[in-house]
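Case study 2.
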Amino acid sequence: MELMEKIDKKEANDFLANYLFGCLEKEGYIKIIFYTNGKIPGFTRNVLKAPLPLVKGTAKKRLWKVNDAIHFLGIYVKGLLEKYKELSKAEFFTQIEMDENVSNGQKFTLFFIIHFEEYMRKKEEIRQNIIAGLPPFQNLVNVTLSDKLKAHSTIYQKEIKSKIDKIFDSFYEDSVKMKKKPNQTLKEVLENEALPKPIEGYYLKAFYQFLDELKGWNVEELGSLKSLVIFDLINIINRRQTEFFDSVGVLKKDFQLEVNKVNNRLVKTVKETHKKEEKIKKLEEEKNELVDNNNSLRKEIEQSQRTIREVRLEREKYIELMHKKQSNIKELKNQLNMVTSAKDRIYKKLFESENICLFTKVRDDSLLHYFTQEQIIYFKDTADLKNNITPRIQSKICFLNLDGIMIRDSFKLEEQFQQKGIIYRIVSGGVNKNIRSIVYYLEGELRYEVKTTD
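Prediction:
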């Protein structure tokens, strides 16, 4: 871009670091961070929520990584240069001061790029303004009233024209259409048409459609056209005012209808309330009649109360009897627990003096009623069983519980005892059956094989 080419690279770097940086808003600092591929600690996903001091501090650390300040400044004001680059200095300062969609940092950057020579001339004044905490443009250019009015007219011209177009599109679609040919001037249109009365906005719309052409009209012609435009405006206002009051009249009529409906409902409610009051009065009379008849029922109620008291006494006796029975049951349970505990103590050391051990995969705490903890050897698989067959075990008679073991695995388990020449027997079918089987073996065929631990 031609504007960028005339800017000195060193001056651009100096402008960014020493002039613009202190005037930037949060978004400007974020652009520096992103431009240098930086990140804001703790705010990777939503940088806009990061506090300004953190954003500014991070941007300051990244500033030295901006290798091409001219390129960054172009990105920072992208989309705004075209709007302001053709304006005169006075128009530039007037319009940019009123543009609420441009940040202070962008305004300062646009001035630096578009009016670089003026920036260089006023550089010291700008620096003093920044040091004093004033806007950078303070007292740089004297803008006349004419400049301000012209700038305002330029800014709002498109907006006014757009609003006028909407008015005519909504209310005057058929009445103000011009028979305009391509490249035809307003004078040619007016000379070839029968001019309508200034009551429907014809001249108002023509004024804004041919605004650029009107600059060449003489004062008398322009004055006459403006008079017709004013008449158009007055009539449009009157028409809109009439429409407004007509609408108000319709609303007032609708409101009165609603009021009448409410009044009718109110009258109906009053009548219904009166009927209900009559019904309440009748119910009161019936109530009094019932009160009078209440004496005859009172004796029956008293008799019923006596019966209830008697039933309550019987119930209390029954509850007392139940408490006694529950107490007896509790005592019997305690006695039963004592018997059970004594039984457990009898069986607890059933095999304690026997030189035997039980290999089992199934864990059951009831085994401790019959074996000591040292006599019970739990295993997970064949390898685990093999590791538990120690020299101490080889001198004992072993019982192998096959509960929870598949048939094909039982042969492998038996091989471990056979290879070491250990006396063993197979048991299965749950704890009770296993105990009976062990007792049977010990009192039967293994009677003389058992070596006690005494």
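Residues 158-176+185-251 form one domain.
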